[in-house]
Structures are given as C-alpha cells and as structure tokens.
Amino acid sequence: MPKQILNVDLLGDDNDYLPPIYKFWFEHIIYDSMCKMVGIDTVCLQNIGCCIQNNDGVWGRWAYCNPERTKFTASPVSNPVFHRGLIYILLEDGKLAVFDECKDEEGFEILEKPRSFGFVYEDSYLVEFDQGELMVVLIGRRGSPINIFKLNEHTMEWEKMESLDGRAIFTGTLTTIMKKTVIKSMQNKIFLPRLYDWPDIVSADFVLRDGEFAFVESRRVDKKVKVGNDAYITNMWSYELGQRENPRDFWETERMDYSIWVDFSNS
C-alpha cells in the first residue's frame, strides 16, 4: 500500500506519514494537530473513522463507525473543519452539518441555522478564523465576486466581512492559511493557486529569511502572458476584499487542484 505523507522535514530525512487506511475510502481526512486524525465519507455510506497517534509517533488502528446516514450534500471542494471540539462541514446550500465524536453513533446533525447565503457560488472554503470563529470564503463564477462571511455564533447567522484587518488568506485548496501581515500589498487579500501560463518546470531558490528556510520562485523564469491590452506576470492570482471591478484576469488563469499552501512560520 503506498504511503501518504502528512508532514515533511525539508532540512532532514524525517517525514510523518498518514496511517494506512484498509477498510474504507474517505472523501476527507482532517488532522487536529494534536495526534488525532478523522476520516469522513460524505458521499456513499457516510463512514467515519478516527485514528490516534501515541507518544512514540506511531499511529494506532482506525476505529470506524457507520452511523445512520443523514442526507445532505456537502459544498463542493470545501473541507471539514475542527471547531470547538466538533467537526463542521459546509453544505451546498450554506447550512452547516456538525459531528460530535462523543456521540458518534448519532452521526451528523444539520443545524437549523445558519441558512443559505442567498446567492449562487462556484467554490467555497470553510476555515477557522484566527480569533476562534468559523469563516467561509465564497468564490463566484469566473472569480467574481469573492465574499467572506463570518459565523455569528450568538445569532447563528452568516455576517459578511468587509475587511480582514490586515490579514491575508491563502486558500483555493484543501489547506487554508490565514496570516497577519505588515506588507500593505498583501493585506485584506485572498490568494488562490490559479496561475498565469505556468511552466512545466518551476525554478526556485532555497533561501533563508528571518531565520526560516523557504522555496522562492526564481525571477529567472519570469514570463509574461498578454490578455487583451494588459500584460500579467507569471504569478498566483489574488483578490482584494471590497474590490468592485470585475476581475477579468481570473478567466485566463489555470486551476491547480493539487496545490497546497505551506506555512513556514513557527507561530
């Protein structure tokens, strides 16, 4: 059985692997960063599995449960999120399904609130805000518009956000990262791994910045692609929150479904 990597040590030979899955196929696998992994199938039988890592870094066997199926359609692409000890899944209509591991035989509960967002979107990404709140990034057809909503847990309603208070969100994959930044050109922006005319081979420099190692795209492969009267540099695509004009350049980008964001900071 091929191994799947959880964490990679770029400076050494140590890699952390996912525990082997023998019995079921999971559509989602989420890790709570505290030695616990949960696998979820939301398409077929709605199987749920849990696996624990011991103090020696060895994963135990998967414990499976097959609760009575709750009928729902998960929002496409969006990944489940651990939040306040529960697992949340965004549904296609904007509602939330919640799973409590202490009540695993009951399966998912569909909350009466929040209700739908009231408009059609193409992609959605559920994430936990760095202040401990649930957020969702909604991407419209052809990239316009992009909306961010935060869940008000007192009223259980989605509230639209007009600012990220200096943060940047990196999403568009099953990994979403939110970072506070002092770089003004990155503040209140959403970055997606949609790329302009990306080459088959990407040259990168291995650099040391502020005591951290990272791969940085080399300027030696800087290419430009012309779209209409505008020229764009080969790069990831970004959208500034509150931007009013239609992001036409989104049309000319290529989706990178196998991309993943990597956070090199220790905080």
Which helices and strands appear, and what pairs or packs with what?
Elements: E1 5-8, E2 15-17, E3 28-31, E4 36-40, E5 48-52, E6 63-65, E7 81-83, E8 86-90, E9 96-99, E10 108-110, E11 123-128, E12 134-139, E13 146-152, E14 157-160, E15 167-170, E16 177-180, E17 189-195, E18 204-209, E19 212-217, E20 224-227, E21 230-233, E22 236-240, E23 254-255
Parallel strand pairs: 15-17
Antiparallel strand pairs: 1-2, 3-4, 4-5, 5-6, 7-8, 8-9, 9-10, 11-12, 12-13, 13-14, 15-16, 17-22, 17-23, 18-19, 20-21
Q: Count of DSSP helices?
A: 0
Going by helix content, strand content and strand pairing, the class is mainly beta
Q: DSSP strand (E) fraction? A: 35-45%
Topology as a string of helices (H) and strands (E)? EEEEEEEEEEEEEEEEEEEEEEE
**Extended strand count:** 23
End-to-end distance:
35 Å
Report the principal-axis shape.
globular
The chain-level mean pLDDT equals: 76
Please give the share of residues in helix.
under 10%
- What gyration radius follows from the Cα positions, in whole Å? 20 Å
Mind summarizing the main beta sheet? Answer: 5 strands, mixed
Uncertain ranges: 221-233
Domain KIB1-4 beta-propeller: 35-191
Protein name: KIB1-4 beta-propeller domain-containing protein
InterPro entries: KIB1-4_b-propeller
Organism: Hordeum vulgare subsp. vulgare (Domesticated barley)
